[in-house]
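Meet our chain:
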Amino acid sequence: MDLSVVLPTLNGRDRLATSLDALAEYAPDAEVIVVNGPSADGTTGMVREREDVDVLVELSDRNLNVARNAGIEVATGDVIALLRYDLSVEPSWLSALEGAIDDADVVTGPLHQTLRNGMTTESLEENTIAGRKVTYFNGGNVAFRRRVIDSLDGFDEYLQTGGARDAAHRLAHLDRTVTWEPEMCVRREFEADGGISEREWGWKYRSLTYRLVKNYGLRPATIERTAKHAISDGFEAAVGVLKGDVTPSGWVGTGRDVAAGIATGASDGMVARARDRSRARNPHGCSTRADRAVARYDWR
């Protein structure tokens, strides 16, 4: 297996350094590609001083899916792994990947997150939508065969969030297999969750509706899933109002953002579905532009 590891990063110099240290120890022969876009914390200098990074790509765009595609573009391995900058591979990560990738198109594994009172871990998530079985993957810990990620044309750069879930829908449409490997694990130390801002609520539903409409069209299953999410989140927010955690005006404002996100996502999803009628369903993929990088340092 010829492995390339792509690490998109943004203002995470110290955590990225920890992640690179783990890769150097547990996957020393991997081609390591850092996509930095654009950081203001000295990330560029730190990476350029290291001897275990093969390529540094500098971006002007903060979109995670743009960063993923920029890394995929320069990767040379027949297997391409995507790793979050703040996650560290564990000792079993590489051997688990090597053992699983021979019989799979895509391999993903759990995140072990250290909490104040213990540790959490993830499990396999699957769903069936419009008769199609979708296996989701962890976008911060996943490896693709090169031909598979090329068949997807990378990630959809329209999306500011939800790019991995969109790719999972498209993998299912292409009849590609996603394998869950429990030993292909990564770790992150506890960090406080600041919650979802009003702007993020809007993008959450814009992304959800966009990827459902783009991949399945305007059908009952699409409307049903969007409505279920909105009702569940609306009920949770209403409980927050009763408890005093959320103001009534905040609840109304969030609802307005959610409605606007749904409307925009549905409209843009229909346009995207019309623009790319291929099975890849990716009108904003790797092949659509060549101006992602503003600078590239290649030490291979």
The mean pLDDT is 90. The chain has two domains: 3-192+284-298, 198-275. The two ends are 18 Å apart (CA to CA).
